[in-house]
Amino acid sequence: MSDTLQSVSGGALADASNAAWTDRYTHAVMDTFGPPQRVLVRGEGAYVWDADGRRYLDLLAGIAVNALGHAHPTLTAAISAQLGTLCHVSNFFATPTQIGLAERLLHLAGAPEGSRVFFTNSGTEAVEAAFKMARRNRGEDGSRTRVLALEGGFHGRSMGALALTAKAAYREPFEPLPGGVEHVPFGDTAALEEAFSPAAVAERGGVAAFVLEPLQGEAGVRPLPPGYLAHARRLTADAGALLVLDEVQTGVGRTGSWFAFQQPEIGGGVLPDVVTVAKGLGGGFPVGATIAFGERAATLLGRGQHGTTFGGNPVAAAAGLATLGVIERDALLENVRHVGAVLSSEIEAAGNPLVAGVRGRGLLLAVQLTRPVAADVAAAALEAGFVVNAVAPDAIRLAPPLILTADQARDVARFFAAVTVPDTTVPAERES
Ligand SMILES: *Cc1c(COP(=O)(O)O)cnc(C)c1O
């Protein structure tokens, strides 16, 4: 650590071991996440190091955040330069980086004339802005009062985003949540039709918005059935409802295109009304955005109707611009498609009886296991020097940096070829 940092940290950041740090963590940090698996002190490229000096290949990237890996020189230089120039301004003012990032996002999203961006600091705030847009989309007679969201979806932990999130364990301790939200069964076209039907509208109100992920991340990297999104587009368009795609996890190149909806197999050529992004956008620096497509969506929130102190911060915007710039300069979308294909085909080809298959897109993948032993597999991976995530009891999520190389992907495949976990199946009781 530098002398300057040491002198202002009051000794709080003195070197310690994983075990010592973890003990301090449990006494100082609120226990919402459980104890940390390791305490990380450094990163470079696709690797991170823990406080004991052990190296790990990072296949989670801060949950789909560190798009350029760790300590990327271009990103670091862009952030440092902006920090040394102008670190923050109020929203009474604007900065070139903020304006530049808004224009860049609109361009990459293929957003039509009249589209606009609202900047946030996180994914959940990007979803909050979309939710507030939905509330403003009540229609002339105020009848569009329902917001639909998909079962299995994850949209964040603030109260509005939580209302859109279906998982009972996340929601119920915090009820009452903002009302008017209705969850529709995953991938069920008939159920979606019912939610928009004249009978449903007469009984429960019109639909203001339908919020969903184009590829569900937290649900275990679960793709929508083919054609579902196009169908949702038709129904929302006919009803004057907003089609809101939560691309907080899938955006910024993660699936091999700038946004997941841009892939014909996922989006079916639809153009949404709203897209939320965050995770990968700043390459690790907190920044999010709500992109409104077209004049109608872009003007739902008027002056004074929404705000944030830090959203659109110049350093965050510089991080976003640099991340997008490196993805483009280094052809990382191509890399995502290539390395993602290597990763999934080689893991499947390894033929471990524990592995049922690999699903997902680009570098957002889930390794489906044949038994509910994801926690054991994740622990074994960590011991072997790989950071992965047990996204479901029987599935491992891989969301590595977009800079992952094919050789590194083969290292991962070798781990999945060899991994074993203790057989925990209890032998059936014999008749005696
Ligand atoms: C992570 C995530 C969020 C929440 O983002 P935060 O930055 O954690 O608030 C919202 N939607 C999706 C799809 C996510 O994956």
From TrEMBL:
CDD domains listed in its UniProt record: OAT_like
Alphabetical list of Gene3D superfamilies matching this protein: Aspartate Aminotransferase, domain 1, Type I PLP-dependent aspartate aminotransferase-like (Major domain)
Tagged with keyword Ribonucleoprotein: no
Biological process per Gene Ontology, one example term: L-arginine biosynthetic process
Listed cofactors: pyridoxal 5'-phosphate
Coiled coil: none
Recorded superkingdom: Bacteria
Pfam families: Aminotran_3
Gene Ontology molecular function: any one: identical protein binding
Keywords from the named record: Amino-acid biosynthesis, Aminotransferase, Pyridoxal phosphate, Transferase
Pathway noted in the entry: Amino-acid biosynthesis
Family: Belongs to the class-III pyridoxal-phosphate-dependent aminotransferase family.
Name of the protein this chain belongs to: Acetylornithine aminotransferase
Species lineage: Bacteria, Bacillati, Actinomycetota, Actinomycetes, Micrococcales
